[in-house]
Request: fold
Amino acid sequence: MHNILGLPFSEAFFWHQFWKGIFINIYATTMKLLKRIISLFLMLFIIVSFSECASTLELQDNLLIEIDKVYYQTWVAGVKGGDRGINVFIPIKSNSNNIVLDSMYFRGKSTKIEYANDALAIGRFKTKANQKQDIIMSNEPYAEYANKVPVLPEKIPFELKDDECIVSYLVEEETKYFKIEGIIRKASKLYQTVPSKKL
Reply:
């Protein structure tokens, strides 16, 4: 018996298997090479990303502002379902370089810094409200529409102790970072309403 090429079936089968084996070998080698190239590029991307983050978030030795002892104060709004939070106060003794503090990182959260006046900068952090919110559970999707979307915990780019914070500030359009350690806790405040932004 011969096939359409005039070769015996056993010989045709041999050549078919031969070329099939070569094709499979080339394909497997190519795929291994592609996987190695992709892995190499991925590792290179990760290394570059981490090196950029490390250089961008480098802490400065000096703040360029003379500050007094930094302290924080927890507060609670006494109304039902009221907020609660922590205010971190940075008393400024001297700021001859006219540096503007931009943001603060404290206890796993970040916020923009506000100025009560030229001598006091404040970072305000809201924590969970003092009352749990009701969640509607139903087999009807539209009934759960009023539920609020849960807020995922924020991830900040610094590892800090409870008495440490990082402040960021701009120098010639470049963001700099400085760590403040040994923040003092002052007595908590209870407000009848949500506190004003003045203090």
The beta strands are 66-67, 71-77, 84-94, 101-106, 109-117, 120-127, 165-171, 174-180, 184-191. The mean pLDDT is 77. The longest strand covers residues 84-94. Residues 2 and 10 are 9 Å apart (CA to CA).
